[in-house]
Design brief:
By secondary structure, this protein is of the alpha+beta class. Helices cover 34% and strands 20% of the residues.
Length: 141
Amino acid sequence: MTTESCGQPGTPAYEEKAFVNAFIARDKRDRYTQLLSNPKRRKDILRCLYHTLDLLPESITTISKSDKSVETIVRLLKDKGAKNECYVISPNGELDQRILPLREMLVKLIRDDDVAILLCIPGHLAFYKAELWECLLESVK
C-alpha cells in the first residue's frame, strides 16, 4: 500500500504511513502500521517510544548535548525545511495524532522530559525524543 492510498496529508493514516515507510526497518513496517492504526493496540507501540524503535540507522542523526536547546533544535529542523507545525505521535493522549505548533511541542518535550515523534515533513523529516536520547530523522532516498 502506498502513502498516497492512505488518506490526505494531515490525516493520521497519511502521516503515520509516511513515517513508517521512511524511517522504520522494512521487515517491521507492516507491524508498526497495524499497531498504529488499531485504536486498541496503538498504546502497545506508543509505549515503545520511551526506549527505542526499529529505526533505519542511516536515517538517524543524534543530537549532541550542546545542541539540545529548543532554539537550536528548531533552527536545525527549519534549516531542513520544517514548517511551524508538526504532526505528533505520542503516548500522551492529549497530544497524539494532532497537528500542533513545532516550537511549543519542543518546549513541552524538553521541559517535561516527555517522549514523542514530531513529524515535520511527512516521510522526510522528523524529531524523535525518547527517554534517554533525541535525534533528527531524515529520509535517505
